[in-house]
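hey m, so remember when u said the tokens were messed up on ur end? i reran from scratch. heres the input so u can diff it against urs
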Amino acid sequence: MLNPVHVQIVLFDGFDPLDVVAPFEVLHAGGTATGGAVSVELVSAEGPREVVSGTGGLALRATGGLDPARPGVVLLPGAAGPLGETPGEDGEPEPGSIPVLLAATLGTSLPGLLAAAVGDPAVVVAGVCGGSLIPAMAGLLEGRHATTHHLGLDLLDATGVHAVHARVVDDGDLVTGAGVTSGLDLALYLLEREAGPRVAHAVEELFAYERRGTVWRPAGPVPAAF
């Protein structure tokens, strides 16, 4: 019998809908395939509320508040909007741009909640696309291995994270995915890791989707230069 796994997907103002919906559907299907051993919900740092995404005003409802002490997975999506300028460069960043939306989360209660989650060995923190940049910019991932959208790898590296150009990076209790559609690959990998490869394969077949890329781990010999 599988140990129950609960996944909290965190919504914040300006989130990317695909970063949320793709993992949600995969993990929900995993719950069906495991007889309810895997469960998933949408949460926010502020509690139950309608949260507007960065895509055309589309909103999703968080049904609860993020509980960083609940064992399982806390999954962070990225933001959706124009690329704009990275904060810290000359000129004001474009309002509503992805860097601005991600940076705005640092002024909420989310970083404190994430700090508690990162410090809890019973919690796996996961990020899709720019989602990994939120705890990284909050100073919570220094020295860890992670990935993000390829356009954000330099920013991720600048926070003290070992940025890896890979589809999915597994650094123990930190698991991150790269560009937007990697939310499918990340969620399927989490299913495999937490519920087993047969469950993950069944969901792959259901969705008619084959995972892409190699899961990178900080293990094994360091490859020689080519």
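this time it looks ok to me. The radius of gyration is 17 Å. if urs says something different then somethings off w ur setup not the seq
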